[in-house]
Amino acid sequence: MASLPEGALMQRAAAGLAYAVIDHLGGAYGKRVVLLVGSGDNGGDALYAGALLARRGAWVEAWLLSDRAHAGGVAALRAAGGHCVGLDTGSFVPHETGSTDGGAARRADATLVEPGERQRARVETNTVDVVIDGIVGIGGKPGLRPEAEAALEGLAGVPVVAVDTPSGVCVDTGEIDGAHVSADLTVSFGTYKPCHLLDPAASACGTVRLVDIGLELPAPIIESLEAVDVAALMPRPAPDVHKYSRGVVGLRVGSATYPGAALLAVSGANTGLAGMVRYVGTASEWVKRLHPEVVGDGQAQAWVVGSGSADGANSALAFARASGVPLVIDADSLRPLTGPLGVPAILTPHAGELAALIREDRGDIEARPLHYARLAAKRFDAVVLLKGRRTTIASPDPDTPVRVNTTGTSWLATAGSGDVLGGLIGSLLAAGLAPIDAASAGAWLHGAAATLASAGGPVTASGVAAAIPAVIRSLPAVSPPSR
Ligand SMILES: NC(=O)C1=CN([C@@H]2O[C@H](COP(=O)(O)OP(=O)(O)OC[C@H]3O[C@@H](n4cnc5c(N)ncnc54)[C@H](OP(=O)(O)O)[C@@H]3O)[C@@H](O)[C@H]2O)[C@@H](O)CC1
Ligand SMILES: [K+]
């Protein structure tokens, strides 16, 4: 900001916002736009974007929720033919309570809002095409103030575009603490923020669109892999490889009660990413029949344990641990854990399993996935992959950014899909990826395979496993990393 003329970043942000709104609405001319404007620069962005929309023929009305709205933005909107409405006497906002002079103090500020404009919103709210939420951005506290809540109530049902962040969510943690805006589209400036990636706040963002405003950014605390990142991580066989040097993944999973878990975990592991797959357990006959490439016990570069293991979970974990190689620990084998394992490991709990493991409430874990994934990673000295709509992957190294997975579809919430994921991550681990990379690339591929297999319809865990090779084939070409 110091290196740019004053207001340059805000102009870039506002222009990016306005064009995102035009895209969203399919044009500006003739559209009716309401801006909800708070006291900070977030409201300034909304006002300048509103001015641009007004110049393109939109009818724009700004509802000023504070008597300290961005003065330059108000002037720009007016100059472009837009309208401003103060809220202290507006029809959609209750009179100020709890203070005898609050209303008077606001009315005394006549510079921003002219007397005729203070009376009420001009627009019939059922004719509004879009609400632009400039109530509060990265400078705000969680929750909404009564003025904002009342304004949103009056506009219920109108599509919302959030400026930078949906107002009211906790920007830096993705948590929810009080009322917040739920947007159809969020236009973020400069970078994604934790609330755009992490649930529950991410669910309030709708589609997130990033506008580059030319910021030089520090190292992130949270990352989200994209296709090109996953492509760069994929194991690529060198010309002189053989099956052992590509890595052998072993699975001690499934049980007489849950033979299907073994078959699904093996199908996740047996996609060709590792050189060989071993299976040890009660479902051997089935595995041999359905996966003739898979062999029995022996040395492996990574073991997967726990999926559907039932009573065998403890011994599977003990065997795998004794091998000294990196492990993927799922489902039933999570239960016996009490602390660090002494070998590199990836734990793959869903919120309920993590709740049982660390004796916390499941609801708390779903409300604070970032916090609990980090806590568990530290406690077990392992990578923790906390499954959810936005699977959250924390490393025991506090300096390694947490990774949040954004691929997938709600159809993926289906029995056995976690077994496929465990096997897939195991194969990447065996192929030599670091645990954080194996876990996050595995989650990305798994979600992308679900989307591919689903094609908008229902999908089964077997279908997800079958789609993994096609997803890998469709990854962008990247030059191999220099060694
Ligand atoms: N940084 C950059 O590079 C760029 C940033 N840009 C933009 O600036 C935004 C950040 O602007 P900001 O810092 O002015 O803070 P912002 O979020 O608008 O408001 C904070 C004020 O609101 C108030 N308030 C607090 N909590 C509240 C609540 N729950 N509900 C209601 N009001 C609440 C409180 O003031 P109070 O009313 O309490 O006096 C506080 O001071 C950012 O998100 C982006 O849009 C772009 O222009 C491009 C470049
Ligand atoms: K906002």
What tags apply to this protein structure?
483 residues; alpha/beta; Rossmann fold; UDP-N-acetylmuramoyl-L-alanine:D-glutamate ligase; 9-stranded mixed β-sheet; 7-stranded parallel β-sheet; 16 helices; binds ligand NPW; binds potassium ion; ATP binding; NAD(P)HX epimerase activity; potassium; transferase
Number of strands: 16
Which ions, cofactors or small ligands are bound in this entry?
ligand NPW, potassium ion
Integer-rounded radius of gyration: 27 Å
Give the strand order of the largest sheet, numbering strands 1, 2, ... along the chain.
8-16-15-14-13-12-11-9-10
Tally of helical segments: 16
Q: What is the CATH class name of the largest domain?
A: Alpha Beta
CATH level-3 fold name of the largest domain? UDP-N-acetylmuramoyl-L-alanine:D-glutamate ligase
**Share of residues in strands:** 5-15%
Largest sheet: 9 strands, mixed
- Please name the fourth-level CATH homologous superfamily of the largest domain: Ribokinase
Shape: elongated
CATH architecture of the largest domain: 3-Layer(aba) Sandwich
Low-confidence stretches: 88-112, 114-119
Query: What do the pLDDT scores average to?
Result: 91
Helix content: 25-40%
Structural class: alpha/beta
Distance between the termini: 38 Å
Total domain modules: 2
Walk me through what this model shows.
35% of the residues lie in helices and 14% in strands. By secondary structure, it is of the alpha/beta class. The protein folds into 2 domains: 8-218, Rossmann fold (3-Layer(aba) Sandwich), CATH 3.40.50.10260; 227-473, 3-Layer(aba) Sandwich (UDP-N-acetylmuramoyl-L-alanine:D-glutamate ligase). The protein has a 9-stranded mixed β-sheet, sandwiched between helices. It has a 7-stranded parallel β-sheet with strand order 3-2-1-4-5-6-7, covered by helices on one side. Helix 7 (227-233) crosses helix 15 and helix 14 (417-430) crosses helix 15 (435-454). The two termini are 38 Å apart. Bound molecules: ligand NPW and potassium ion. Ligand NPW binds at residues 1, 9-10, 13, 38-42, 45, 66, 135-141, 143-145, 148, 163-164, 168, 189, 213. Homotetramer. Keywords: ATP-binding, Isomerase, Kinase, Lyase, Metal-binding, Multifunctional enzyme, NAD, NADP, Nucleotide-binding, Potassium, Transferase.
